[in-house]
């Protein structure tokens, strides 16, 4: 039995209402997050400046990604570093609470902020004693049959003692492999090493 026009309108209204509610919920979610990091973004220039390496940093190559050979992986089995982090220089330490910032062209608070535990995540700029400068980039490790790239996320983390205005630790971490196969056109990526970065920050000694 065909649906009457009245029932069709009711169904459309219900579906439309659900879509509006979902859209509003998503909007509120992002607006809330934006407002929480806004006070820190006002001071982003302070957090993202180029800090000198402190005396704790003995490794002259601390800013070079120390990528060593790894086992074969990825769509074509190219050798790359094993998943996880590779230390480069001292690991650093934490003073106060940590603000993670993205060092890409548009410098801003990295949303890893929301993954930090309460004892590391500052609620206001006055609580920040440590800056984690996150330098993200992607590397193509292979190609798929359609000639699209297969990419891995990398992140170099510089730990900055904000009071001393010095880099006191650095670490480079690699995300997961891209999928062996894909069902869509275009490039494919592995996941970002978000958990590894949070675990690294949690593991640092406190001062």
Q: What is the number of beta strands? A: 10
Our count of domains comes out at: 2
Specify Rg, calculated over alpha carbons: 22 Å
Shape type: globular
Give the N-to-C terminal Cα separation: 73 Å
Written description of the protein model:
- With 207 residues, the chain is of the alpha/beta class.
- 25% of the residues lie in helices and 28% in strands.
- It is built from 3 helices and 10 strands; from the N terminus they run ααββββββββββα.
- The strands form 2 sheets. Strands 1, 4, 5, 6, 7, 8, 9 and 10 form an 8-stranded mixed sheet that branches. The protein has a two-stranded antiparallel ribbon with strand order 2-3.
- A hairpin with a 4-residue loop joins β2 and β3.
Structural descriptors:
alpha/beta; 3 helices; 207 residues; globular; 10 strands; 8-stranded mixed sheet; two-stranded antiparallel ribbon
Write the layout of secondary structure elements.
Layout: H1 5-41, H2 44-48, E1 52-53, E2 72-73, E3 78-79, E4 84-87, E5 97-102, E6 108-109, E7 128-143, E8 149-161, E9 166-174, E10 188-189, H3 194-203
Parallel strand pairs: 1-9, 5-7, 8-10
Antiparallel strand pairs: 2-3, 4-9, 5-6, 7-8, 8-9
Question: Concise description?
Answer:
This protein is α/β, with parallel strands linked by helices and 207 residues long. The chain is 25% helix and 28% strand.
